[in-house]
Input
Amino acid sequence: EAQVTQNPRYLITVTGKKLTVTCSQNMNHEYMSWYRQDPGLGLRQIYYSMNVEVTDKGDVPEGYKVSRKEKRNFPLILESPSPNQTSLYFCASKLLSKEETQYFGPGTRLLVL
Amino acid sequence: DQQVKQNSPSLSVQEGRISILNCDYTNSMFDYFLWYKKYPAEGPTFLISISSIKDKNEDGRFTVFLNKSAKHLSLHIVPSQPGDSAVYFCPSSNTGKLIFGQGTTLQVKP
Output
């Protein structure tokens, strides 16, 4: 089944404790992206990647890192999480053509205390 | 600076009637518009899209209308079903990057 998977689905952590949210897709998509969803703000892009070893900042990259060592994986790293990073995170992927549909993962709900 | 706005946070419709969800955008460079539906505890799923060279696209019960001069698009769902109850987003794009609005929660009452 074609899908985007994220782990963990739910995470509670404390300020400053490094964490990684994994994202994997099995559709051989070149493009992958991370979003956060906050009440009243919709989804905002954090980082994206056009292909292996190619990553770029989205609209809200502060406090986040990403890597793209393999085509299928695009982990989101919070080196020193803070409470304002409490949010719902979505990973998405698509083929590179701009009119291709983005497929979203199920989401990771993060609470930073 | 919100480039995509969904000014109605919520909408309630009776089953069988038409649901009309609206979206306004400010960036005239957008050339591709999509609608996504999101259920609780799931990621957004693609519904329908429209290119800026068209003014209407239809897929079953779903029709999207684009008014470029007004920078406005709408999604019509006819007939509405209880399973359509979800949050709807209308991301817009000109480079492949999606810019999302705040979302509209649709409730379809049996």
